[in-house]
Amino acid sequence: MEPNSGAPLREMWYYAVAGSRLKPGKLLPKTMLGEPIVLGRKSDGSVFALRDICPHRGIPLSFGRMCDDDVECCFHGWRFNSAGRCTSIPSLTPQQKSTDVGKIKVAAYPAREVQGSIWVFFGEDPATAPEIPVLPDIGERKPQLIYSLAAKCGFDDAVYGQMDPSHNPYVHVSPWWRRSGGVYDKAKAFGPTPYGFSMLRHKPSTNLLPYKILGVPETEIIFRLPSTRIEITRFGRHSIYTLNAVTPLAEGEIEMNYAAYWTAPWITLAKPVVQWALHNFIDQDRRVLEKQRVGLRHQPTLMLIDDVDVQAKWYFRLKNEYVRAKTEGRPFDNPVKERTLYWRS
Ligand code: FES
Ligand SMILES: [Fe+2]
After folding, report:
1. Which one, 209, 292, 303, 325, has the greatest CB density within 10 A?
2. Which residues line ligand 1 (CB under 6 A)?
């Protein structure tokens, strides 16, 4: 038995939003890990994140506006820079101007944009946390496709839902992906990777329709704490890269975020179809996770079996080890060992 739906790890970067959704000069409110955040982009293109509460009278700063790269509160016009420091209190008279407004602060969160996705750090020390995942071989390219869907379910349930092979023949059934009924023998080699594990390069299942069409030679899937899954599929000269990241919004609310990149121009032509297919696929996950939530209210423990649920077990071990290593002030010791897992799915 494993505990589930625990709190998301702190001292971690979390995916916040696709960079293209945050326009310069605009403010974007978002609740993450139960905390109100306002995201902004300055005129030089850099991004920032502040606590979305004005320290004066508590109104969300996101109701205000960007003014000369500062955030101006809509209530009494106090301004804060991207580091959270107050830069102006318009109601002060010239005599009162000696008041050190710079001592007034709103909490600032480290925020970074990497390969077209904005990440926010929750914790004290980003330097000792796992790096924001970077997809190989694509430089600072932006995603050709982004998708995001909220669900009412536990954070852990959604994270290991990404690495649950045996739900596929029951949940992801559709005429264009896989038909119901069949399960196939699988043997997949795994190994440890930084703060996670990888399903090593392998030939994907030929029972999946798109792979039959593409003639895909190789796929690799990498999981990393706190909640990202990267899939790299290479066929001939071309590759498809997908980043999945589960973002904890509040207790019992998450967001499944996707960013996809590809090198084959013809995939761009098929983008509307891919977008539609992705929505259907992710929505299948959303519906089943929300149904699972109904039962977990009565029985919050899971029964995880070998070998098909070993990845979920690894997830809990990685999470526990991360907390233990931080508490004991020692380096993270990845509990995952090389192993081949066998199942039918
Ligand atoms: S509440 Fe923000 S300036 Fe007064
Ligand atoms: Fe799924």
Report:
1. 292
2. 54, 56-57, 59, 73, 75-76, 78
